[in-house]
Amino acid sequence: MPARSRVLFEDSSHRECEVICRLPTSRGGAATRYGFTEVMKRRVLGAAIGIVALVACTTAGSALRTSALGGAAPAPREAVRESAATAAVAPLAAPTTTDAPMPRAVPVKRPGAYANLDPDDDLVVAPPEPRDECEAELAAAGVSFRPATLAVHTEGKKTKITCGAPQVVTYLKGPGKIAYSAPPLLTCGMALALASFEKIVQEEAERSLHSRVVRIEHLGTYSCRQIARFPGWVSEHSYANAIDIARFVLKTGAVIDVLHDFDVGDAPPKKPAGAFLRSVSRRANDEDVFSHVLTPFYDAGHNNHFHLDLSRFRTDGTRPPGAAAEGEAGASP
Ligand SMILES: [Zn+2]
Questions:
Q1: Which residues are CB-neighbours of 23 under 8 A, at least 6 positions away?
Q2: Which of 142, 106, 133, 136 is nearest to 121 (CA)?
Q3: Per residue in 79-124, pLDDT tens?
């Protein structure tokens, strides 16, 4: 059942304003948290809240600010989630007729694309929903796997963040016939996306390196935690809905290491290993395989791995800051 809430924010003149919006509660009563930041402006404010906000605050294009962000640099969409304590959200007693949800078209996904393209659920923070035909989809994608469990639970003395997921698998082998340094424990959606990613990896390995990848070394999938750089915001790792990939080992024995081989220059990479890493990461983003593809272009915390996840909102972390892909909502810092 959607909950109705009153949301406080400031306009560009730093006047306190108020809008009323409909906030969906997450499945099973798990915590759902909201923050008015970049993603809010671009995807939510433009529709359901935008009209009300324009009436409430006469300054067109007012800049919403959260108390958590203050005047700091824009937060990445990976981290556009704010704690309930700082969101200034309070329940309303009675509904009105001015905030009826506006229907929005969800883009159709291409085959092999698993990124969340729904603009209306960007602010939901919760484990991903189970897929109805998970096992059949994995089989069709050429994935061998073991069913696994990862109980949904809360952790943390203060934050009480929700971790775990209702549907996870242990990924054993995908269509690219690539071994992993440890069998990844992943949500079903991430397992499907990883299978899709393997195809890109092999295509680009053959094209740039004239070899095939036989092994991927990763730094982990599940970890019940907040995002290190943005305390208070839940990482997709908390749901096993993310993987950090550090190295690709070729059939020739060569090792392509994100830390050493990723080329962060603006120009096309000069070395084949750099070309491989850039192509792989950009295709994973541009072909909507994952919601997030974060590379060393994104920040220092990702200088040695690709972070790939299926969060409910998008971030392209495959380009130099300020160089958003064509059609993207905007570059992340
Ligand atoms: Zn990660």
A1: 2, 3, 4, 5, 32, 34, 89, 123
A2: 106
A3: 444 333 333 333 334 444 456 666 667 777 788 999 999 989 998 9
CA 291 / ligand 1 centre spacing (Å)? 12
**Cα-to-centroid distance, 224 and ligand 1 (Å):** 12
Q: Please write the tens of the pLDDT for every residue from 253-287.
A: 999 999 999 999 989 999 999 999 999 999 999 99
Question: For residue 243, how far is its CA from the centre of ligand 1 (angstroms)?
Answer: 6
Q: Is the Cβ–Cβ distance between 219 and 70 less than 8 Å?
A: no
Q: Domain residues of the chain, as ranges?
A: 2-91, 134-317
How far is the centre of ligand 1, averaged over its atoms, from the C-alpha of 65 (Å)?
26
Cα angle 245, 251, 252; round to 5: 115
Backbone angle region of 154, left / alpha / beta, with phi > 0 → left and psi within -120 to 50 → alpha: beta
Centre of ligand 1 from the C-alpha of residue 157, in Å: 23
Query: Taking the mean position of all CA atoms in its chain, how far away is CA 176?
Result: 24
Report the separation in Å between the CA atom of 213 and the middle of ligand 1, taken as the mean of its atom positions.
21
| CB-based burial, 133-170: b 16+ in 10 Å, e otherwise | ebeebbeebebebeebebeeeeeeeebebbbbbbbbbb
Distance in Å, CA 97 to ligand 1 centroid: 42
Q: Determine how β-strand 255-257 pairs with β-strand 242-250.
A: antiparallel
Q: What is the 3-state secondary structure (H, E, C) of 265-315?
A: CCCCCCCHHHHHHHHHHHHHHHCCCCCEEECCCCCHHHCCCEEEECCCCCE
How far away, in angstroms, is 308 Cα from ligand 1 center?
7
Distance 323 CA to ligand 1 centre (A): 22
Q: Provide the terminal-to-terminal Cα distance of the chain, rounded to the nearest Å.
A: 35
Q: How are beta strands 16-24 and 306-309 bridged, if at all?
A: unpaired
What is the pTM (predicted TM-score) of this model? 0.69
